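Ticket 4471: requesting a sanity check on a complex prediction with protoporphyrin IX containing FE. Repro inputs:
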Amino acid sequence: MYVVMNELHVPSERKAVLTERFSRSAENMSHVPGCIEFLFLDNENEDGKQVVFTKWESKKDYENWLESDAFKNAHKQKGNSEKQAAQTNELQAYTVAHQSS
Ligand code: HEM
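Returned structure tokens:
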């Protein structure tokens, strides 16, 4: 199993807009092969941090999605400063060493 989190740094005034956009992503991600879980998280301590959490059957499934049209379509607005709600992002990837249940 494989976990990838994209930590987005988002100006306070754009958080609601981004949350709304990501609320539609749950449906999109439910059709992606190998994607077990998708969450959009608000950090409790850092106001400007919102995290895209994804859990995968395998690293290969994640890599396939990165190459897919679904990923490209979801990130079309990248670089377009008017539509781009996130200021910067930081990617964290983990292999799952242990899982309960
Ligand atoms: C390279 C810089 C990246 C930036 C700045 C970024 C930012 C964004 C933004 C703003 C959206 C919302 C698009 C919209 O619906 O309007 C989005 C969608 C998404 N991003 Fe990224 N992203 C990046 C790369 C990644 C990576 C590497 C992952 C891997 C976990 C990821 C995970 C997701 C997911 C799961 C969605 C929802 C996809 C969907 O609705 O089909 N992003 N990203």
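Notes from triage: The chain has a mean pLDDT of 92. Leaving this open until the requester confirms.
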